[in-house]
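TICKET #2291
ISSUE: user wants both folds in one file
ATTACHMENT 1:
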Amino acid sequence: MNWIGIRYTLVLGALIGLKAYADFTERSQEQIFVAGLTLLLMKESGQCGLSTDGAAPLVLAIKWPCAFSLDSTGKPRVERFENIPIVIARHSTPKPVPSRDCDSEQQAIRLIDGRLEASSVMRSVSCFNGTEDQKNFTALFRW
């Protein structure tokens, strides 16, 4: 095999690997257990969706891919306010170089009587490099 054939094989292998990674990322779902239920993040019409134990998803107002806010140990964080569990889903897209900012959005979701309720969306230029302030779990809801 000549150099052209070897290069072609390497490039083709890399493209197949990238496609497999993109497909895996597209299908990946984050999950967390809250109040005896499994909450799953999933892609729903290009948006972030959240489902409880396989039920029809609540479509959030933030883009896919999304992730749960993490605690200091790197696990999805659940806060409680008046004994109501609350999680935060977030999406972040880096701005073009040379900027070190991101276009980010997050939405808190609370579980009340077995149903999901989403807050308003908070937008920022933060790239989510740390844990969320506890207030972010409750301040996004307008009671």
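ATTACHMENT 2:
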Amino acid sequence: MRFRRLLWPKSLAGKAGVAAVVLLGILAIAFVVADRYTSKRLEEAWQEGEEFGLPNDVALLFGPYVPDERNLAIPLEEASSIAAAFLEGERKKRPGVADYDFVDTPEFAAATEAVLNDSRYENALREADRRTEYRSLGNPRPPYLFASSTFLEPRRDVIRVETRIARQLASRGKAEEAVRRLLRVMRLTRRWEDKEPLAMGPLINNAIRCLAIDALNEALRSGGQITGGLHDEVEKEFALSESASRINLLMLHAQKLCCADAYDEVNPLAKYPVLRPVTNHDRAYMLRFLHRMMRTSSMPADEASREFESFERELKRTKGHPLAGPMHCGTCLLMPPAFRIREPFDRLVAVSRCLRVVNAWARKGDFQAPIQSLGLPKECLIDPYDGKPLRVQQTPKGPLVYALGENQKDDGGDSQFMKDVVLAPVETKAMKRTP
């Protein structure tokens, strides 16, 4: 009897106490079960990523050790530092003026002569081009999102200087030298395209290529003498630009690691250990979302675009759901930027194909020749955005060659607001890229 009274006392307070203990016990058991289930689900979500052959440990993404004497990152870093110091000096002469407002001025062009004649700069680029191995000089510790921007940004300064030098050379009738310099930057950029694992690396790599392609287009159209062998080198280099899908995959993988790293700071529920099953469930959902995006890397642009549209609709439905929205708070906050990751790489493939057409026109010495007569592989004449042939439009200054933009509409070669992906004669450009 006494034992029964302990289990269910006569007093209301005693009964409430027993009920509270029972309820807490049930909640504790439910927490343990839910925690084990969601932890396992999260672990499985991480394991799904193994299908891409990319490790989830950032230190492993840096790859094997490369001795300093073989690592092209070291002389490239030296050249980048010289270019960055030069540009910083030019910025100080023009306080408050953005780079893209002065890099094409005659004054800046004249100033680049100092870099062109700097033997340290040229020797560093030449040595980097001689080497073929690469290992990042970055630090494989969080935060991953911006850890590489300061370290890699000077490489964009190299292409800013090199494009201006190339335009100077082409204007003096030295188109071949201009093309060789730009091809060197393209080679170097390709060699580290999938070996720089930190989040900003692929975007900076993409920006460098776009600037180089703009300048190459101008040099090839300049009318200067370029040997057939150099045209072969251009075609060979840009045939390799289809590897942009690999860079896109790496960018999405880096985004996954960034989201995982930033999750606790973004989701307020992560502050409460008792809600760990909820946040584990949300993390697993987020990872699987990103894995689905990574699977689109090998898809054509038009097919991938439809997939990304379905991803966005799904996330909007989740965000608007009264129960699922709060439960997936972290995913809803972290995922939207990932939807914009693929487009720059589709654009790179499109503009690379356009450059191959311009190169073939220049080799033939006939910018009026139909693109089907240029002897290029059929696949490189296809617009990646809709699977149809690249478009050509004649202008008084020469032909535009273009692909559709992200809107997948033919805007007649209008590159304003990046509607179409266009390579045009310099005088007819509606807009210059400034990645």
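RESOLUTION: both attachments delivered.
EXTRA DETAIL ON ATTACHMENT 2: The first strand starts at residue 391 and ends at 395.
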